[in-house]
Amino acid sequence: MWERVQAVRAELSRRGLTGFIIPHADEYQNEYLPACARRLTWLTGFTGSAGTAVVLSDHATIFVDGRYTLQVRDQVDLRAFEPRHLSEESVHSWLSGILQPGDRLGYDPWLHTPENLKQLTEACAGTKAALIPCEPNPIDAVWVDRPDPPASLVVPHDLAYAGKSSEAKRHEIALTLQRDEVEVAVLAASDSIAWLLNVRGGDVEHTPVPLGFALLRRDGTASLFLDEHKISQPLASHLGSAVQIRPMLEFKEVLVQLGKAGARVSCDPKRTASWIPERLTKAGARVIEGEDPCVLPKACKNAVEINGTRAAHKRDGAAVCRFLAWVNQEAHKGTLSELDAQSYLDDCRRRQARCRDVSFPTISAAGPNGAIVHYRATQAHHRLLEPGHLYLVDSGGQYLDGTTDITRTIAVGSPTSEQRDRYTRVLKGHVDLATAVFPAGTTGTQLDVLARRPLWDVGLDYAHGTGHGVGSYLSVHEGPQRISRSGSIALQPGMVISNEPAYYKAGEYGIRLENLVVVIPWNRNKEWLAFETITLVPFDASLIDVTVLNAAEREWLNAYHARVRDTIGPLVDDATAEWVHRATEPLSET
Asked: Which pLDDT tens digit goes with each residue over 383-408?
């Protein structure tokens, strides 16, 4: 990586720049990126789904959050990059302390949102440095074998799975534009476009979205901007005359036309590349900052989507149970590798009806690798599942009728008393959150403590959020809902969200227990809400210290396991059904 950093520095020097910012981002602000946009990975070796590097003439650093503090040190050349923790210091605060007057810091305006750019501008202004937009990106100038952009076809998403027509969605969103006196909304988020137009694509691994831009007008009509080779034969008839398909090359010119007309155009400052509102403003448009109007309606699933994800989770539960039954049979031999297990699980899932892909690269982590939150086993670096270790597996599927995400931690052989205590405390937090009843208007921040409390009781915690939103055959990480210290959005019926407390002991093991839940009215009372757990896979009874559970927690677990047994048992082969029966036996009081 050192040679690549030096090549970038040479390019920056040629352009008269002191440094350059490299975020994990593409033009569409996706979490998972097509290969051609993985500039941060190419430069640093870091493969996580969030991070930012800064290369200066004499120094380089990479910022990651709590999920990646161990991973970054394993993947990055520490001679070239200094890892920093975002919870301890932000990128812009670090820049405020290191930039000098007259420095010229470059950035790609397609890879930064206006919200992010505002912080960078303030950091540079405070040090009398200049923030310089760079087109084309300096990384691209030295990335000689950069992959071509993706070119997957865009296809219709059937109404039987979407539950509401694109026409109905467009007219509902158009009403919000009329209310806000906005003429056009720019849609840059790939999942928003896919949801609004009931289309799907394959431009991003494991996330069935097309890469493009869209404009939605206040009359409900829209324009979809795509590379022309992505247009499938059924797409035009599916979209109808109210949605115009236009070449991607025309997008910039259409923004200029909106500016010349003095249009009021909304852009989401958190989800839109800063280049877009800058171009609109320069052309004369009045840019209105506001949240992507599709975000909240997309998060609140309709009845068809909810029933679809319930059905998908049954098939997914059958796949994961088949996998766990196999691991239970094979792991004690000490010859099963993380890659073997990952391959078997992915195969189990892909055999299920309506499964189109995994929803993210499977995390198959044995022993100390389980403490690396987003660990990836590779041919060069992987472990065996050995007796005495814990095995953590985090995986999910993309089904036509729903997206799944589940984490289980199991013991290989006999667990230690410490492992059982930590596992049970994580499980207590999981159950306490799953059984929460809360008034409408409650945010994820208010609920987050429920999952952490059993760990806090003994001075322990975990450095990531407790829950993220999940899409409907869309992104496995969907906003705006989340359960975390920063989850400020009120939960609403129809939202699907994960429940995944955890504990990690660096160098030894990791524990994470994740189910997906749906927000539902409590006892049909719209003023109060609750969670319905839709993931159906047993927890490892060998890791449960029943004496640490209270009666209500034990009762919930027994009821949950009975539901798993009754639902999944009939869907699997005899050997797996026998394992499910054993794994779901009621917990006794002692």
From this structure: 999 999 999 999 999 999 999 999 99
For residue 70, the model assigns a pLDDT of: 80
Are 362 and 510 found together in one domain?
yes
The b/e string for 67-103 (b: 16+ C-beta within 10 A; e otherwise) is bbbbbbeebbeeebbebbebeeeebbebbbeebeeeb
Q: Exposed/middle/buried for 253, CB within 10 Å: 0-12, 13-18, 19+? A: exposed
- 388's tokens: 């005495």
Q: Tokens 């990791």 sit at which residue?
A: 510
C-alpha 188/C-alpha 474 separation (Å) is 15
590 pLDDT band, cuts 50/70/90, is low
Please report whether residue 132 resides in a domain: yes
DSSP string, 240-275: -TTEEEEEGGGHHHHHHHHHHTT-EEEE-TTTS-TH
**Could you give the CA distance from residue 192 to residue 292 in angstroms, rounded to a whole number?**
8
- In DSSP terms, 425 is beta-bridged to none
Domain that holds residue 28: 2-142
| CB contact at 8 A, 68 and 50 | yes
Are residues 566 and 425 located together in one domain of the fold? yes
CA 518 centroid distance within chain: 17
Peptide bond connecting 493 to the previous residue in cis, omega within 30 degrees of 0: no
Give the tens place of pLDDT for each residue, 402-445. 999 999 999 999 999 999 999 999 999 999 999 999 999 999 99
CB 346 within 8 A of CB 362: yes
Region of 511 please: left (phi>0), alpha (psi -120 to 50) or beta. Answer: beta
DSSP state of 297: H
Number of domains in the chain: 3
Contacts of residue 416, defined as CB under 8 A and 6 or more positions apart, other chains included, come to none
Long-range contacts of 372-375 (CB under 8 A, 24+ apart): 372/70, 372/71, 372/74, 372/510, 373/66, 373/67, 373/68, 373/70, 373/71, 373/464, 373/502, 373/504, 373/510, 374/48, 374/49, 374/67, 374/68, 374/71, 375/71
Q: How confident is the model at residue 86, as a pLDDT?
A: 82
| CATH number, domain containing residue 128 | 3.40.350.10
Check whether the bond before 150 is cis (ω within 30° of 0).
Answer: no
Which tokens sit at 285? 């448009």
Secondary structure class of 197 (helix, strand, coil): helix
Look at residues 347, 448, 468, 353 and name the one whose alpha carbon lies nearest to residue 407: 468
Q: Is the pTM of this model over 0.85?
A: yes
What does the longest C-alpha to C-alpha distance in the chain come to? 75
The answer to whether position 589 is within a domain reads no
- On whether the CB atoms of residues 34 and 150 are closer than 8 A, the answer is yes
Q: Let me know: does 260 contact 283? Beta carbons within 8 Å.
A: yes
| b (16+ CB within 10 A) / e for 434-463 | bebebebebbbbbbbebbbebbeeeebebe
